[in-house]
Design a protein that fits this description.
By secondary structure, the protein is of the alpha/beta class. The chain folds into 2 domains: 3-64, no CATH class; 74-249, P-loop containing nucleotide triphosphate hydrolases (Rossmann fold). The protein has 13 helices and 5 strands. Helix 10 (179-192) links the parallel strand 3 (166-172) and strand 4. The structure holds adenosine-5'-diphosphate (ADP) and magnesium ion. Adenosine-5'-diphosphate is lined by residues 72, 77-78, 81-82, 109, 111-117, 201, 240-241.
């Protein structure tokens, strides 16, 4: 291929935003010629490479934007350690159908049971399926809302949180909110209701949620909405870490 033709081809590929192909075009051309493949196969191969790279980049971007504190995929979760867990349900959830159905998922259970790990793992699956995902601790979210309230850009932040396909709220119940904070969180969840899926991890039974939110009427309304059609996963087992260290001692 002539230098000028190659340069023009690269320019066109870049203008068409086919940067992965443009970056490797010499290699593709050489391999195509060596293998003696036809134009049809050659074009197919190029488009496959470009699409694969785009999917990989999109997944990386979704995971970055989700702001997981630690990347804990499903493969690193030891299912044998928790025989009480409904594996079928976890498999089903990893398919992300609940996100399109806008159903919520609530993990209940004591500290160390693996709730955050499971929520992160399902969040990563959502990113792989190209869903806009965001992971926040309840404490972090309420603080962000309170700060925004001070600066009067609360509605902008509420809108942003309404746009995620999946919002993961970690650690509900560890720290009670102020009246203002709890009202703001209520407002955010009310706005998301049936607009997108919410996943919650909590150490509290539903009966104790009033302690965190304060107002019993508001809490009842919130619970009513959050639990409607929700998948509720009761993590009844002991702390994974505790079990591991007991095992080691033996
Ligand atoms: P929780 O959020 O319920 O308090 P975490 O998800 O933070 O618990 O789990 C505590 C620690 O134990 C984490 O490091 C987590 O990765 C690990 N862990 C919990 N359950 C399992 C499991 N079944 N397999 C592998 N690691 C687990
Ligand atoms: Mg946790």
């Amino acid at each position: 291929m002539k230098e000028a033709t190659l340069a023009a081809l690269k320019g066109n590929l870049k203008a068409l935003k086919l940067s992965t192909i443009a970056g490797n075009i010499e290699v593709h051309l050489r391999q195509g010629t060596d293998a003696g493949i036809g134009y049809d196969e050659f074009l197919l191969e190029l488009t496959v490479v470009e699409l694969q790279t785009r999917a990989q980049n999109r997944e990386k971007r979704r995971i970055r934007e989700a702001k997981f504190p630690l990347i804990k995929p499903l493969e690193t979760f030891d299912l044998n350690a928790v025989p009480e867990l409904d594996i079928r349900l976890i498999r089903e959830l990893s398919g992300c159908g609940y996100i399109t159905e806008r159903r919520n998922v609530i993990f209940l259970g004591r500290s160390g049971a693996g709730k955050t790990h499971l929520a992160t793992a399902l969040g990563i699956e959502a990113c792989k399926n190209n869903y806009r995902t965001r992971f926040v601790t309840c404490y972090g979210l309420v603080n962000e809302l309170l700060e925004a309230g001070k600066e009067r850009d609360l509605s902008r932040i509420l809108q942003r949180y309404a746009r995620y396909d999946l919002l993961i709220l970690d650690e509900l119940g560890y720290i009670p909110f102020s009246k203002e904070g709890s009202e703001m969180l209520f407002q955010l969840l009310a706005q998301r209701h049936e607009m997108g899926a919410v996943m919650i991890t909590t150490n509290l039974g539903f009966a104790d949620w009033t302690q965190v939110f304060g107002d019993p009427v508001m809490t009842a309304a919130l619970l009513d909405r959050l639990t409607h059609k929700a998948h509720i996963i009761n993590c009844t087992w002991d702390s994974y870490r505790l079990k591991q260290s007991l095992k080691e001692k033996k």
